[in-house]
Amino acid sequence: MRGFFICAALLACTMLPAAAQEQDEKVEQLDSIVVSVSRAGRNTPVTYTTVGRDALRGSSSVNSLPMILSLQPSVVSSNEGGTGLGYSKMTVRGSKGSQINVTLNGITLNDSESQEVFWVNIPALGNILSNVQLQRGLGTSANGAGAFGASINMSTAYVHPEPAFSYELSAGSFGTFNTTISGATGLTPTGIYADLAFSYGRTDGYIRNAWADVYSAYAVLGWMRGSNSLKFTFLSGDQHTGITWEGISAAQMDADRRYNPAGEYYDADGNVRYYDNESDNYAQRHFQLNYTHQFDMPLFWSTTVNFTKGDGYYEQYKADKKYGKYGYSLSGKGDFITRKLMDNGYWVLNSNLKYKAGAADFTAGVYASTYSGDHFGIVDWNSAMGETSDEWYRNNGRKREATAFLRAEGQLANWLTLYAEAQYRVIGLRMKGIDDEFSDLAYRHTWSFFNPRAGLTGRWGAHKVYASFAMGHREPGRSDLKEQIESVNTLNSAGVAAEVTLRPERMFDTELGYEFASDNLTAAVNLYSMEYHDMLLETGKLSDSGYAIKENVDRSWRRGVELSAAARPLNWLTLNGNLTLSTNKIKDYVCYEDQYDNATDWHPVAQKRIEYGTVDMLMSPSLVGMAGLAFLPWKDANLGLVAKYVGKQYWDNSQNADRCIPAYYVLNASAEQVFRCAKSRLTLGVYVNNLLGREYYADAWVYRAAFANGDPEYVEEGLFPQAPRNFSVKLRLEF
User: Fold this and answer.
1) Where are the domains of the chain?
2) Confidence of residue 484 (pLDDT cuts 50, 70, 90)
3) Which pTM value belongs to this model?
């Protein structure tokens, strides 16, 4: 705690562009209406913060978007490779990635099957986004998987009024390198405009095999004339990374913090070897076509058609495995090189109407999507037959969704605004084929949910107070169902009766907040209560591909208070901070632990029931805070410090003191200088992460299994060490 209170934070303090002309304001309004339906407005009774273009571009280029957002209230971010590039994760109020709804220009980015967003697949987002709104709690109605802790609404809706060009180059510790080049035509007299951007990043990573080669490309071709806007957006991400999701045990971390077991095997002489191509490779292409029209009356109509294509694989060396595991009739064991592949397509139609009548706003929208994903595995090589191309499993998942919502926001008085919203979702999921354990994944189910929201906002002078209540539902993901289907099939084949029991989860969210804003001081306090029924909560175990396996718990809750403030006591000094105090509990938690006959044969028997009572949720710290300052010693210069404190987190839901991440705090420093010449400017930035060189880890998982004959419990764990002191420098040229 002491470190938290003595540290401070840098907020990039850059001047906002001058006010646009009236025509440019209309252009921006038309261009951004497509994303406004999923966003909170000035008087919407929703808890949120917005990060603008300058703040997104003012951070270190090493950081992925979760790392950039790590300073926001209640956010905890980590990186599997120990730095900011590669596989990154974030939680909000303790809610994991599958419980955070993420949209780009109103289109859901969450994978339809896993409900996760894999940020490494869309690198360098900070350089193309116009802004990001982070809503905490259920927020406004969101398309796709329900928000069960937060929503991240990203927008590229920005039209350069004039031609623009920028080039950014950065380099840092652990062989990290980034470059981004972008250009814009500006809005031409014919109403046509175009934006282009390309980014490349690489790193060796902090831990072994945490290398990454990531590419992204972004292109926009648009036309605006009068009350019409037509825009095509293309976003591509291509990632090649070393596998880092296994983590290491506590004993391994004590011996070597940079150790990573991925690809490890022994040669014929018993020497340790590592397979060079233990890697994850995935490409994702997003195509969006949007048309927006403003009618003579204050009525907007916006429709977007989206197609997302994803394909890739991860390759692994599997040593000393039975041939039967991969479908061969050969007896004995051998070594294998395998690929697990994905090939998926995602179609979306998103259409909405927005009408303003005096002091009231009305919005209605429909959303329809269909997703099809193939999963299959290929053996590329084995020690008995050499090179092969044998397929050993294949399955398919198809998910369809239809959503409709209606929202009204109007003034009951000059100072009081009423907000009401209703959403109806229908989701159908079908799975077929066999998985990598030859388990039949045949499954079909349809869910339908009604999600209402309502609230009040009072505003007078510099003061704002709001209260809201919302109910949300969320269906299980494919990975959740797959793991349970596999377990059920294994138990049934062993003569133990079992069935798929995963249920959709439901949450009631109550928010009560107060905000004060003046020229030199802003402050906010928010009380929240998120009450869960049948919550899908991580068990602590990961699947072979790094997914967090979940189970339903009857009753649980996240309750807390969020405090934030920013002050500018002097023209050259800015202070900023936030603090979240919370309790995150599972009531009467019952764990069903896997159980086998003995530690030699591992034949499954009935699961072991363990009653824990009321416990803390895993990976849900009760204290999260940030404090900071920015110091402007002279014109166009910025010096700053940023500190983040994260309280103790348990690896699993047993609340065992031996399975927890100790509280940690990290201090970062930065310095920026802008050099201006005519219409161009050059920014030089230097960034130091983990300035105090603290050795800590920020994420972990654990799996336990019991044995009916009394053999000692089997425990497998994975910890993710973060990098000690590291540096990066950045040059950015704009004109």
Assistant:
1) 2-734
2) confident
3) 0.89
